[in-house]
Amino acid sequence: MIEMDDAIRIVLENTQLIDTTTVDLMDALGYTLAEDVRSDIHMPPFDKATMDGYALQGGDIASASSNTPVVLDVIEEIPAGTVPQKVVGQGQASRIMTGAPVPDGADTVIMVEDTESEANGQKVRVLDVTQVGENIARLGEDVMVDQVVLEKGALVRPPEIGILAAVGVVRVPVYRKPIVGVIATGSEVVEPSLKPRPGQIRNSNGYSMMAQALRASAQIKYLGIVEDDAESLKRVIGEGLDTCDIVMLSGGVSAGVYDLVQDAMRDLGVEVLFDRIRMKPGKPLTFGVKGKKLVFGLPGNPVSSVVGLELLARPAIRKMQTMTMWHHAQVKTVLKADFRQSPGRKQFVPAHSVPGEHGVWTSDWVGHHGSADLFALARANSLFVVDAEVEHVPAGTALDLILLEEW
Amino acid sequence: MIEMDDAIRIVLENTQLIDTTTVDLMDALGYTLAEDVRSDIHMPPFDKATMDGYALQGGDIASASSNTPVVLDVIEEIPAGTVPQKVVGQGQASRIMTGAPVPDGADTVIMVEDTESEANGQKVRVLDVTQVGENIARLGEDVMVDQVVLEKGALVRPPEIGILAAVGVVRVPVYRKPIVGVIATGSEVVEPSLKPRPGQIRNSNGYSMMAQALRASAQIKYLGIVEDDAESLKRVIGEGLDTCDIVMLSGGVSAGVYDLVQDAMRDLGVEVLFDRIRMKPGKPLTFGVKGKKLVFGLPGNPVSSVVGLELLARPAIRKMQTMTMWHHAQVKTVLKADFRQSPGRKQFVPAHSVPGEHGVWTSDWVGHHGSADLFALARANSLFVVDAEVEHVPAGTALDLILLEEW
Lengths: 407, 407
Hints:
Molybdopterin biosynthesis moeA protein, domain 3; homodimer; Molybdopterin biosynthesis moea protein, domain 2; Molybdenum Cofactor Biosythetic Enzyme, Chain A
């Protein structure tokens, strides 16, 4: 039996970097970059107008006002997407649109709002001054050719998608998402599509585990239900080790069938690194490694399974692909009612929590029957943490709170 | 020009409930339920052992201890998934596995750890007492047949996936995800796969907008790049109105082509409800409705576009499908350095923020060149909010902070 902090440390120490692959631009959302990304162009690629207006020589309009407007000859119109053909001389201006290249000769763009067009667009009255150089984004002002715009390891979020598009990276080098293979164990377990016969129950854990793995940023592979039988377990765990990066079993870690799962793992060359954690819920939790592959034997109780996966397996899924935020966000909370436990194991208690005015949260314990009640979890958005030696937590006590809101 | 709070209110007032559909169990993750979900079985479906051990009559072992063990006849073995065949009488016990039905006659399960098997499994020595009724989960203790287990409108997270599996709902009635059609405007804009010629830039906003829409819980449909031309705009916006729930345009809302987009919208029967917001970045932002369809004309500047979509369009995407958390989480933050602005518009400033010990965050302003710099956004995980009339925010001032971490 080991402490929770040691269990997390052992899992993370045994988590190795996954290999890389390439995905299409829009599919890259949520992946981490496997290489530095460099720009193939200057950005902006030319001196660019940032307003609709007139490109001109700033000196020409230094005295302009609505009382003493300056009138300039309009020599060209430059829509976005075109290339200016004429050089702007003294007393001249070119009509220019946002995003269009500033023509040679011009050093300033005046907003259209500060002008009046006249003579059918052949002349413009400038009604106000503007600073020389105004309303122009300079070539390379944001990025120069070959500059690194996104670093290896960066998480691809919407702004990164925009940057990849801007530098033309339509096939994106990324770390692969770990494949989590999920196995439900138990001769009494049937698929959700079936009506359980007497003595049977539906596979519920397998599906919530897959949903958790997806949310943790993994791919999933459902390996099905395996009966409590040594050969079957060995066959399906073996299939998982062959085809997945992480194998997760639900159930089969309690005293009765416990040896079956551990024996199957050992027969397949998996080194078991721990099988009991001083935590509640979720004491019987087996973790093993074979090369780069990880195996988690999660408890059959739904709440234990959910908590074990979020606190131990999710960090591994994320570390594998070089994500930096391995753990759920943690805040401080205050309990709304007394909480009691029989001391001995660090406890993670499902709670419904709301943020308070000054950053401190408030938590309502979500009652459940032991560790089997999935319905309690559906009312929870967080876990508050009670130290092993504490028996009574009075209302108003401040505790650590693990946020599960991103579910 | 309207205030930001009014803009948000107008968008939400014009956001109507979307229609419903049915998806497969594992696809339901992240959807909201369109109907109450009821259980088709009792849970547990029978009195169930919660431990591996022996089912027996509690009265038989009231005096058991390791010094004075009680020996019982083992009459049956009940693996999980089977139905007990024998009634447990006085002086008898049935070996039982976790999850198996408790046999008639027995009222208690004693953990295997408190027993010793003897006579080749035909007898069991009970070494400790246990409370009558212990280690049994009662029929219907969690849920009774026909009880509502998940309410209409509930967001499907991993625990809800587990519950749906447990009650056999493998086709899930859900609100449809709104389809967001994305249009990039501008004759100078080319697809990311192309190398921009002089005067051209790549479509970057369209892709970051699609990524934002996905993250906001929408489906996406890319409607492509449209040049600044009345007929083309009308055709593509029309296609968006026909095939999508929300149409988003990038660019085409600045003074020059502004009228083109608004004219196209009006020609298509879209009522424009506002087109300028007293906010920074993102002042020129057009919002219109046609029946249940919403149209957002977002600014062409990347930062303005990102902020406008997160603060105005995302709440609409979420309200449509009855999600309850429309807005990003908001906390309090303290600025690490002075911040100055020219007053007049409420400002949302991209920042890199870290949570502090007592729930108050600390924010570093992420410098950017006006509102065009997507690279600044890539360094941000939040927006701090500066009121319109404030000119100088000294370091250490507490401000509202909008968290964008779930990106």
